[in-house]
Design the sequence.
C-alpha cells in the first residue's frame, strides 16, 4: 500500500479517453478503494503529434502499442484498440511477461480468449474483460461469480446497440432499413461500414464469450450461426405486431440434447417477453439457470461512460488484488471441444415474407412445397406488394419443424414459379421448444 | 486442493434445505469449480427429532446454533435462520474465531452489518451476504465490484416480493387489499403476520444494505423513512392509471445536496418507467452512476432456488479463496456517520385520496388549506364514495413541494370539517426532482 500501479493504455479513442478521464478525475477515490495509486504512465495512439498535450503532462505517448505492452513502467496493460491485430499480439506480449491485462475487445476474447486466459494463468497474471460484452452491464462478473452455483441452461441477449437502435426506429417510426441505418450513422451508433453490426458478427463475438462462460466450454464465433438484419422491412414489424410479436436481433445460447445451440439472428418474440421491452441502444442479457430461474440485466451496451465503468472496475480489481499481494483466482476447468448442435436439427418456428405473383393457384402450389417437407403452416396473410402491382406479399408463419426441413422448403420455393423472391425468413421464439 | 471445507448450516428451512440439496446434488461440479470438496458437517435446526434421516446420513444435527458456529469440524458457517437473534450472535461467534460466514439475513446485515464486517476483517475472515437482498439477483456483487468505478447517485428498487405480488393483484385484478393479502398468504408469498412486508420493514432493511454499499456509508434501517401499503385501495390503481402512473412499493436511496434521501413507500411511477413493468414476486434494482448511466437487474427476489443461487455462489467464492490460500479482500473505507437529508426538506409530488362530505363549499375550503402552505394543486377528481353515499372521494395530485409543507397541509386537512378522512397519501416520482 502506498505503492503505485503503472498503467499502459493501448488506444485513446472514445473509450480510451473515457478511461483516462475517469482515472485522472477520480484518482484519490480510486486510490482509497484499491489501496494503491493508479498512474497512467504510457499510452499508444495512432497519431502521436495530435496528443502533444498528453506528452506535455508527462505521459509517454507512442504509436507502438507492442512497446507499451512491454514497457518497464507499465504493470497493467489496458487494451482498448479493438480489432484482432495488433491487439491480440499486445495482450499476449503483456501476459507473457506476467503483466495483467484489462481489455474491452470482443473480437480478441471471442477468437483467442481461451488461449490468452490459459497464458495468463500460466504466468500468474490476470486477463479481465468485463467491457467486452454489454458495455457496463455487469454480465461477465455475474456469470463468473454470482451465478456460478447454477447449471446455466440458456443465455438470451440483445447485445448490439446498432441493430437494436435501427430495429427500434423501424418498429416504432416505420423507417425503412436504409433510413434507420442513415439515422444510426448520423448519431454515431453505426460505423460508415456497418457490416460487423448489421450482419451480426459483433453479436456473435459477444455470444461466444458469454456462452463460453455460461457453459464452461470453449465456444468460438465460428460455432455461432449468424444472420443479419439487412432483409428487414418496416412492414415486417407491422405484421409481427399483428401476430402478437416484436422483432429483436437476438443472440441465444442454449444447452440442448443435441449439443449447444448458438445463434444470432432477427427473431420474433412475444410482446410480453422482457426482450420486447428493450429499445434503442440498450442491451439486455437474460440468464436462466436451475437454481436462479431467470435474471435479466439491462443497461447501456456501449459508449465511453458505460464501457469505462466496466474497464475501470476491472482495473480496480487487479490493483486491489496486487495491493493485497494475492495471486489471481484459478480458472474454472473448461470443455475445450464442446458439442455444437447441428443447425439443421434445431426445432424452430418461422416467419416468412415472400413476394409471389398475384395470380390464381399460388397458394396451392406453395402449400404443396410446405406439405412435401411435412412443415405445417400456422398462419397466412396475403397483401398487395407495396411496390409492384402484379406481386403480392405473402406472410406465412409455420408450426415447429426442424431448421433443415424449413431450409428444404425454402429451396423448394426458390425452384417454384410461385415465388418471385424470398423477402425475409425470421425465426419465432415463443419460449417453447416445440409447437 | 483435494482438501475439504467443512460447512455448518444454521437453519434448514426453505432456503437451508435448498442450499443443502444443491451442495449435495452438485458436489462434484462444485469441487471442480472451487478446488475443494464442500462437506456439510453439521446443521442447526429447531426440531432435531424431525431430522433423523439427516443424522443417519452422518450429519451432526443440533438445536444449538451457537455450538454449530464454533464446531471444530466447521470451517465456514452458513447462516440461514433469519431474524436478529440468535443469528447475529452466531455470526459474531463464528467470525471471532476466524471462521468465514455466508448469510442471507437482511435484518442482521442492515442492523449490524458494519460491525460484523469490521470484525471479519480484523480476524482475517470474510462475511458474504449476496442472498440478503433480492434473492438471486447479483446486486451485492455488482455494487461491490462491477460498478465500483462509479460515483453512484441513486438506487431504486422493488425488493419485497410480498408487496409487489399484492400490488400486482390489486392493480391487474382489482382485488382489495384484504383479498390480495389472503391470496398472497395462500400461495406462501406472505406470512401469517405480514407486518414486516406490508409495512415496508423488510424493504427498509434491504435498502439500508444497498445504500451502505452504494454510498460507502454506514446506513441503518432507522435512517430509512418507511411507509407501508395498508391504506391502498383497488381504486387508487385505477386513478393512478388514468393519470398515467402505476403504483409500486419503491425503495429509493439518493444522494442529494441535503444528504442521503432514503425512503420506502408506495409510489406512483410513470407507466413508461422500468419499475412499472416489474410484476408479481419479481424484484428489480436500478443503479445510476456517473459512468454507467443506469443499469437494471431483475429477477426472483425470494424462494429456495433463487436464494440458494446466491448463498452457494458465496460459499464457492470463500471456498475458492481458501483453496488458493488467499486472504480476503480488504474492505473499502466507509463513512460511519453519513448525513441523512431531513424528510421535511425533501421535494416531493403527492397523490391524495380524501374522503370528503358531499356538500357545497368543500373544494373551496380544502383548496384554502393547500394555498395556505403554498402547495399548488396539479389535478383534482371527485367521484362518489364507493361505500358511503353522503361522502365523496377526492383524488388530488400536487405540484412539487417540500415534504414538510405537504405534512402541514395534511395537518390542516385533519383539522378541517371539509375532510372526513385521509384515505391514502402517496408520493409521485416522475424522475424529475422538481415540478
Sequence:
Amino acid at each position: 500500500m502506498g505503492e503505485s500501479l503503472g498503467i499502459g493504455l493501448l488506444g485513446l479513442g472514445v473509450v480510451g479517453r473515457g478511461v483516462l478521464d475517469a482515472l485522472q478525475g477520480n484518482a484519490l477515490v480510486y486510490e482509497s478503494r484499491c489501496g494503491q495509486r493508479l498512474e497512467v504512465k504510457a499510452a499508444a495512439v495512432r497519431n502521436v503529434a495530435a496528443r502533444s498535450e498528453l506528452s506535455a503532462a508527462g505521459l509517454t505517448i507512442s504509436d507502438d502499442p507492442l512497446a507499451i505492452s512491454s514497457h518497464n513502467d507499465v504493470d497493467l496493460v489496458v487494451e482498448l484498440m479493438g480489432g484482432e491485430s495488433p491487439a491480440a499480439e499486445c495482450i499476449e506480449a503483456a501476459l507473457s511477461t506476467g503483466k495483467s491485462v484489462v481489455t474491452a475487445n470482443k473480437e480478441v476474447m471471442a477468437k483467442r480468449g481461451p488461449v490468452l486466459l490459459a497464458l495468463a494463468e500460466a504466468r500468474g497474471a490476470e486477463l479481465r474483460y468485463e467491457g467486452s460484452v454489454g458495455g457496463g452491464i455487469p454480465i461477465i462478473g455475474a456469470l463468473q461469480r454470482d451465478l456460478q452455483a447454477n447449471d446455466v441452461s440458456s443465455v438470451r441477449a440483445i447485445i448490439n446497440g446498432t441493430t437494436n437502435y435501427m430495429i427500434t426506429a423501424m418498429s416504432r417510426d416505420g423507417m425503412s432499413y436504409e433510413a434507420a441505418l442513415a439515422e444510426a450513422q448520423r448519431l454515431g451508433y453505426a460505423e460508415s461500414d456497418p457490416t460487423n453490426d448489421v450482419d451480426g458478427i459483433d453479436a456473435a463475438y459477444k455470444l461466444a464469450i458469454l456462452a463460453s462462460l455460461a457453459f464452461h466450454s470453449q465456444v468460438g464465433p465460428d460455432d455461432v450461426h449468424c444472420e443479419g438484419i439487412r432483409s428487414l422491412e418496416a412492414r415486417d414489424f407491422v405484421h409481427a405486431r399483428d401476430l402478437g410479436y416484436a422483432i429483436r436481433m437476438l443472440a441465444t445460447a442454449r444447452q440442448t440434447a443435441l449439443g449447444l445451440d448458438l445463434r444470432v439472428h432477427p427473431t420474433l418474440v412475444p410482446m410480453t417477453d422482457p426482450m420486447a421491452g428493450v429499445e434503442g441502444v440498450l442491451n439486455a442479457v437474460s440468464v436462466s439457470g436451475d437454481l436462479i430461474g431467470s435474471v435479466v440485466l439491462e443497461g447501456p451496451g456501449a459508449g465511453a461512460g458505460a464501457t469505462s465503468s466496466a474497464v475501470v472496475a476491472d482495473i480496480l480489481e487487479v490493483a486491489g488484488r496486487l495491493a493485497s499481494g494475492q495471486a489471481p483466482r484459478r480458472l474454472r476447468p473448461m470443455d475445450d471441444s464442446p458439442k455444437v448442435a447441428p443447425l439443421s436439427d434445431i426445432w424452430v418456428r418461422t416467419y416468412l415474407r415472400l413476394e409471389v405473383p398475384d395470380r390464381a393457384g399460388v397458394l396451392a402450389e406453395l402449400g404443396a412445397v410446405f406439405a412435401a417437407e411435412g412443415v405445417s403452416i400456422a398462419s397466412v396473410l396475403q397483401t398487395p406488394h407495396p411496390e409492384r402491382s402484379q406481386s403480392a406479399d405473402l406472410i406465412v408463419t409455420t408450426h415447429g419443424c426442424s431448421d433443415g426441413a424449413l431450409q428444404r422448403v425454402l429451396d423448394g420455393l426458390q425452384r417454384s414459379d410461385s415465388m418471385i423472391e424470398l423477402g425475409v425468413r425470421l425465426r419465432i421464439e415463443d419460449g417453447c421448444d416445440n409447437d
